[in-house]
Design goal:
About 30% of the residues lie in helices and about 30% in strands. The protein has about 130 residues and is of the alpha+beta class. About 10% of the residues are buried.
Length: about 130
């Protein structure tokens, strides 16, 4: 005897609750370099750790977490992504930092062959590079 029913039970679709469409949490991480830039490396590590800490709660609340890591290697990519400073983290298109603050980044300057400024993160009045 074969069962042609699909879903959560063999009683037909009436016994199954409707599937909720997941809400999407889109995280864009834009950076110049992960091999030498300590600011980009630190932001990448902190982002990964933060996602690990909250992913269970967000998924239980019906969110799908999508992370895009974008290595901005050309002027065209910078324009396409409206890239202002490295590293940048956006959630659903909104930058985490309302104000972009920068300082000289030796690692990215060496990489680019020119003086380069990278983002300074400010949290509770303390600056992080």
């Amino acid at each position: 005897m074969s069962n042609n029913f699909t879903g959560c039970c063999s009683g037909g679709s009436a016994c199954c609750p409707p599937q909720q469409e997941k809400k999407r949490l889109l995280i864009d991480f834009l950076y110049l370099d992960l091999s030498v830039c300590t600011r980009c490396q630190g932001a990448d590590n902190n982002l990964t750790q933060a996602i690990d800490e909250v992913s269970g709660v967000l998924e239980a609340a019906g969110f799908e977490i999508v992370v895009n890591k974008i290595n901005v290697t050309t002027k065209e990519l910078a324009i396409k992504h409206q890239f202002l400073s490295s590293p940048t983290i956006r959630i659903n298109g909104v930058d985490l930092e309302l104000e972009v603050k920068e300082s000289t980044c030796q690692e990215c300057g060496d990489l680019c062959g020119d003086e380069t400024d990278c983002r300074v993160w400010v949290y509770e009045g303390v600056e992080y590079t």
